[in-house]
Amino acid sequence: MILTRKPTAAGVFYPASREELARRLGALLDASRMASPPATRSGRVKAIVAPHAHYDACGTVAAAAWIQIAPFAPQIRRLIVLGPTHHVPFWGVAAPLTEAFETPLGLMEIDRVAIETARRWPQLSLTDMPHDQDHSIEVQLPFAQTLLETPAVVPLLIGDTSDEEVAAVLETVWTDAALIVVSTDLSRYHDAATAERLDEATARAIEQSRPDAIDPDRACGDIAVRALLRFAKRHALRATRLALDRAPSLGANAGCDDADAEVFGFGAFAFA
Question: Which end of the chain lies in a sparser environment, N or C, as judged by fewer CB atoms within 10 Å?
Fold first, then answer.
């Protein structure tokens, strides 16, 4: 067993230098602190949805979600991060065997107590392989390290499974001192007008708690989003839209008209 998962997204999705990463996060969060109104004035934010693309593309949207938990940072002792698998297909939900995840900002301890508690569910497997090269969880961790007071992390990659099975695992690892983070981009590889239409429909479905309206064309982490919506309904949490935006995809054809260029859609939401 490898004790520490080394960062694989550093230098690709976010800066590899500790100093540069800290400066970038500080700038993104400071700007969001000025621009983003609180999602709630009465209850603690229990969950957020944030994108996981390159910080240059989605950092402003991700920061709009993360800044919402800053007032509640001392209360958060467990960080539950759900992300879709991008490289290794598998059935169910994968939790790592490793003891810590590393970023340029340091180590985040894995919450082995939470993971052991969830092992009663057959859909949960313990394996490092899907986590080794995947960025969907890793890109969220520097935000957590900047804002939170060293919580233990429960990294859950989602494979081929149902949102009900994911929601069952989520209920098992949830505590009042936890924050849930669903890491997902929205529409992908559409022209800007189509992406805007799809992302607006997805945002409304999240706000109206309609999980059946979220499909793989609306979000790469569609299963995790639907699971969060089911969890939110059981816990009487309401979603607040914080930001929607788009950026050219890395696969966009150079020289094509802006109207025809493929884009990725990003959204930020808070649940309280």
Answer: N
